[in-house]
Fold:
Amino acid sequence: MANNQISIRPYEIGDEGAALEAALESVNEVGPFMPWCHRLMVSDDLRRWIEAQVAARNAGTAFEFVIEQADGRFLGACGLNQIDAANRRANLGYWVRTSAARRGVATAAVRRLVDWGFDHTDLVRMEIIVSTSNVASLRTASKAGAEREGILRSRLWLHGVAHDAVVFSFIRP
Structure:
């Protein structure tokens, strides 16, 4: 999918139905690396989370975005969170629904998010932390132009197990 065929926009109240559909479609692929994505999710869970993200955006403490196809189809999400204002650093995360995977959607969304972050915040560093076993996300970070910095031992705790993780970064030009 061409970079110009997707866009990112802030989450809005009412996105929970499309987000739930995409997440439930993607439990097998996304769930192992993002524990919030599980078969027992319900629309109310996502509505409450979206409400919290709208408030966080207004407060400048997190910036979560929907990834959309040109026709408005919900493809996934990306965001800047865990913002460390003192050090002008944030975590950059992303996920794409299974039916949109392996088409460049996540790579294009990450590039758009990095541009947005440097244009609209004072961040100097955005970090992507990826389990060493998450091949698709490792590939996305590299293809999006993130600098691979190294492996952090036992950095992520997923489903009761410690995982080594690769740290990538984007630095303000």
Remarks:
- Strands lie at 6-10, 63-69, 74-84, 89-96, 125-131, 147-158, 161-171.
